[in-house]
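Progress note, sequence design subtask.
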């Protein structure tokens, strides 16, 4: 089922500035990538088994742009690593959990992802994340 906390998504206005802040803290930044489907540019910061995922919007209608407009910069979502996103979605849907994505989508770094709606998870945006080999 759930394997680990895969990453913590952090919404930022300026990716370059955010990268500098984390480098100053002594962390390495890697794997910059645009995820067209989600309208974000991401960079990853590994910390042990988990990563911090910096998220900058690539368009004003990106979910990250809307989030920053409403709540400001900061923690945006928590991603849990799973073996099989599709099976988890079916299981959670059957339990009445509200899904943002009915089917898995492509995420950064060759992953399959799906979001659960914050309205059904106590206000926390949760992502299921399956790493592909
Ligand atoms: N965490 C917690 N709550 C959130 C949230 C977040 N990140 N984003 C939105 N919400 C809340 C809003 O505050 C709002 O709550 P209230 O009704 O109480 O005010 C509610 O969800 C609806 O928000 P909205 O601004 O009206 O936005 P939408 O309904 O259009 O979208 C959501 C909300 C979560 C479905 C949408 O942001 C989404 O699909 N998110 C998943 C996709 C995503 O974030 N992609 C970027 C990351 C990409 C990556 O990791 O690769």
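Output:
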């Amino acid at each position: 089922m759930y394997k680990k906390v895969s990453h913590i998504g952090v919404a930022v206005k300026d990716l370059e500035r955010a990268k500098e802040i984390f480098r100053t803290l002594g962390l390495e930044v890697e794997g910059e990538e645009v995820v067209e489907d989600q309208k974000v540019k991401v960079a990853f910061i590994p910390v042990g088994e988990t990563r911090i995922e910096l998220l900058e919007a690539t368009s004003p209608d990106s979910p990250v742009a809307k989030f920053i407009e409403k709540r400001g910069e900061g923690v945006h979502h928590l991603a849990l690593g799973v073996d099989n996103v599709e099976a988890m979605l079916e299981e959670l849907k059957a339990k009445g959990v509200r899904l943002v994505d009915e089917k898995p989508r492509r995420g950064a770094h060759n992953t399959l992802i799906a979001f659960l709606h914050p309205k059904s998870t106590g206000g926390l945006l949760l992502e299921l994340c399956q790493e592909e080999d």
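The CA atoms of residues 16 and 49 lie 24 Å apart. Work on this subtask will continue into the next period as scheduled.
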